[in-house]
Design goal:
The protein is of the alpha+beta class. The chain has 2 domains: 18-97, no CATH class; 107-179, no CATH class. The chain is built from 7 helices and 3 strands, in the order E-E-H-E-H-H-H-H-H-H.
C-alpha cells in the first residue's frame, strides 16, 4: 500500500481536491466537511459540526481536524488506513470487533439527502431552496450580542445553506451558468 498517505507526511498537488475530517476524541466519530481556507474563527460549517459534540454541561468535546486529499479518501483501502491512523492504530482485524470502526459520515450531506427525499427528489428546484430555515447558523448568538454584532443571519457576506449539499444544487448551478451564457 505505497500510495496510502501517512498523515502529515505526503505533499499534495496544488490543484488536488481536498476535504476535511473532524475526529471527536470523545464520541470517536468522523465527520466529513468541505474544504475551508479562511480564518478558523470564521469557519461556520466547522462551528455547526462541533455543536453536536458537547457534554451535558455544555463543555465541548476535544477533537482533531484533518485536511486530506479526496483521492485518498475515495479509495477504500486507503480510507481504512487513514481511519486506522486517526483512531490510533490497532490490528487489521479491528473492524471484525467493532462494525463502526471504519465509518465516517458527512453530516451535512446526510441531512440534505433526507430533505431531498422528503421533497420527493425534485429535479427543477425545491420549494425550500435557500430558505432562511435551511441556513447553517452557528450557535454564537450570545457571543455576537456581547460583542455588539448583529445576528449571523443578518450579517453581510456569503451564507451556507443545507441546500448547498443537496443534488438540487447541481441543477441550480447549471441553470445559473446557462443564464449567464457560460454553458
Amino acid at each position: 500500500m505505497s500510495n496510502v498517505p501517512i498523515l502529515g507526511q505526503k505533499k499534495v498537488e496544488a490543484n488536488e481536491p481536498m476535504f476535511r475530517l473532524l475526529y471527536c476524541l470523545v464520541c470517536q466519530t468522523l465527520d466529513e466537511l468541505p474544504p475551508y481556507d479562511g480564518e478558523p474563527e470564521l469557519d461556520m460549517l466547522l462551528a455547526v459540526a462541533c455543536e453536536n459534540h458537547v457534554f451535558p454541561s455544555g463543555e465541548p468535546h476535544k477533537g482533531k481536524l484533518f485536511v486530506l486529499p479526496l483521492r485518498s479518501w475515495a479509495d477504500f483501502k486507503s480510507k481504512q488506513e487513514i481511519i486506522r491512523q486517526i483512531k490510533g492504530g490497532g490490528s487489521k482485524g479491528l473492524a471484525e470487533i467493532d462494525d463502526t470502526f471504519y465509518e465516517s459520515r458527512s453530516i451535512f450531506m446526510e441531512d440534505a439527502m433526507s430533505c431531498y427525499r422528503r421533497h420527493n427528489q425534485p429535479k427543477d428546484g425545491c420549494p425550500e431552496w435557500h430558505d432562511e430555515k435551511k441556513m447553517l447558523i452557528p450557535n454564537t448568538e450570545k457571543e455576537r450580542r456581547a460583542e455588539g454584532m448583529e445576528k449571523y443571519k443578518d450579517s453581510p457576506g456569503q451564507k451556507t445553506y443545507l441546500c448547498d449539499f443537496c443534488p438540487v444544487a447541481i441543477g441550480v448551478a447549471q441553470r445559473k451558468q446557462k443564464l449567464m451564457g457560460m454553458n
